[in-house]
Amino acid sequence: MKKLFYLFFASLLVSFSCAKNSESNTEKDPVQNPKTKISLPLAGNAFSSKHTEESHTITDNGIENWTSPEEFFTVYFRVYKAGTFQITIEESVQVFGKSELEFSINNEAKKIKFDTSKKPITIGTWKINKEGYVALKIKAISKTGDRFPSIDRLTISSEDYDAKIGYVPNNEGSFYHWGRRGPSVHLNYIVPESVNARWYYNELTVPENEDKIGSYFMANGFGEGYFGIQVNSSTERRVLFSVWSPFNTDDPASIPESHKIKMLKKGENVHTGEFGNEGSGGQSYLKYNWKTGTTYKFLLQGFPLNNNTTTYTAYFYAPELNKWLLIASFNRPETNTYLKRFHSFLENFIPEQGDLSRKVLFDNQWICDDKGIWTEIDSARFTTDNTGVKEYRMDFAGGLDNTSFYLKNGGFFNNYTIPKTTFTRPLKNKKPEINFDTLP
Question: How far is Cα of residue 345 from the mean position of the Cα atoms in its chain?
């Protein structure tokens, strides 16, 4: 009798233990009749804590080659109202021995054990109380193999949520790359069309802690090129001026000699060459350790010659040196125009930095026409690129910050600006004091 009792009690313990282990891998049955269900690829929506191009743990297949327990990942998607969401790892998951991971949203964590491959695993259910971005963190706990699981996709489903979900859905148009870079944002200054603008003037300030690696703060954009400052690495910053070739190609080597950008002159220590990938043309840059919280001035000249070419010259005012620096002067063939399409933009050119926020201020915009008459520009129209237009990323903003225009992107913030909104700043009546004859 005692033996039978012990056998019965032992069987209860085994049943309880198995039930407890299975609960760590599935909190509840999958949603049967979801109002909303998406398959979210990590390749376009996840970010590594390392923020470096050398980590190689996020690929077009999602999270792969994850070996370091110090590295963790954050997956982002945007909801447009409150709801309850169940998240499942799709069957494409690959495991290498036994391992355990922690998944958390708003500090509510679920621990999941992995011991078989290519099996859907329900992570858990979370209630999201308001509209905005949801950040799902994936952290390592333990492993017996040489790496942690490779995760391609997550299924997000809900029985009570009936709105859209914002995320990068696929790699059409290389949107794993563009989506992780984040939305570019622009200010299109409203300039009288009848003016022959020979000069563009703008002032730019990057606030403290907004100078993330991979940022391009572009001050003086025009129809044929752009002029601004970059953060290229932790040790290098640049003043960059580029002019596109009229020959449409991403390969500079394919441009005919008759359509190449000609360099006329350049400043001291300025590097010049060609660029490609997003159009092609002439490029110049000065390595310069510009600072946050300091206002820099940008002056661009553009005017047509009588041989169907146009000359563009860029000057950068360095307050640390108390003088204007020549960046470069280029001649563009097959072009007959004064400066057109005055604009500024903010972009991130390193996808691994796309979950970090950056911001820039622009102030005191002026144009000077071919007769030497200055006009202050006080209105700008805010726009975003295709990443924002498609609503794959909604962390974009721009408009007025006190008396300055501003642009902001990245970091998955919630309060976005409606594209195509026009903003007007107060007039400063501070005409630039520039002696053109003494410019280098």
Answer: 12
